[in-house]
Amino acid sequence: MTVLHSSAPRHFLDIKDLTREELRRILTISARVKAQQEGRRFPLHKDQPLAGRSLGLIMSQPSTRTRVSFEVGMKQLGGAVSILSPSDMQLGRGESIADTARVLSRFLDILVLRTGDDATLRELAHWSSVPVINGLTPVSHPVQILADILTFEEHRGPITGRTVAWIGDGNNVATSLIEAAALLEFNLHLATPEGFDPSEEAIVWARQHGANIITTRDPKEAARNADAVVTDTWVSMGDKDADVRHRTFRPYQVDEALMQHAASDAVFMHCLPAHIGEEVTQDVFEGPHSIVFDEAENRLHSQKGLLLWCLEQNKIPT
Prior knowledge:
The chain is 40% helix and 14% strand. By secondary structure, the chain is an alpha/beta fold.
C-alpha cells in the first residue's frame, strides 16, 4: 500500500483547537497575501505556492462567500479545485464517511466541508489523512471569524484589549467569536434573548483560558463603549421557528440608536447575508460604521492564508 500522507494533517475545525501563536500566524499570512494581490489577480510573475495541489469543496448547504472565496483563493494560489455535493458522490447513496474520507485523501491535498451536521465534520476529519477545514456547521463557523479579525485589525489596529459586542442569536458564529476572544484577549459582550443563549460550553472554555466575557439580555449594555458591534441573521438555514424568532429578536435590532452606545469610532460587522430592517437597519448597514463588504472581501484573503497554513506553506513569495 502506498502511503501518500505520513504526518498528521493540520486540520482547522474550531478556533479553540489552535494556539494563540497559530491563530496569529494564520492572520499574518492572510494579511501578507492580501498585500501582494493586485486588484482581483494574484501576481502571475510570482511563484504559485500551491501549484500542483488540489482542494475538494464539499458543499452540503447553499453557500456564496465560503464557496467562492475558497474556490477563487485556491486558484489564485496556483491550485486546482473540485466542487462536490453529497448528491454528486456515492456518499449520497450510502457510502460511509470513513470510506469517502480515505478515498478523497488519495485524490486531494485538502478538504473543506460545509455541513448541517457537526458530527459529519468530526468523522471526516478523523478518517482523512489530509487537512480538513470547517466551512460551517451548526456548532461553529471559524473561517468567518478569521475574516472578521483581519477586517477589524485593518480598520482599528490590534484587537487585543478591545471590546466586541455581539447582538442577537448566540449561534455558531458567536461560538467561534467566543473562542477567539480567549486566544486573542479581547473583551466580548454578548446580548442574547432568553432561549437563544450562546454555547455555555464555549463560554466556560473561554473563561478558563482567560477570556473576559459578559453575557446580558440588554443590547445597550453589551454595546456600551464597544469598538465593534457584530450581529447575524435572526433566522438561519434549518431554523423552523421564524415567526418566534422575529418576535423575540425585534428588541435586538442594530439601529443607529444602539450604535450611539458604542465607541464613537465603532465599526459594524455582519457575516452576511443581511436582512435589512430585521437584524440591522438600512442606515447602519450602509452608514459610516459599516465595514461589512471589507469583511466579505476578507473571506477571500483569510481563506488563502488558511489554505497556506494548513498545507504548511508558510513562506509566502515576496
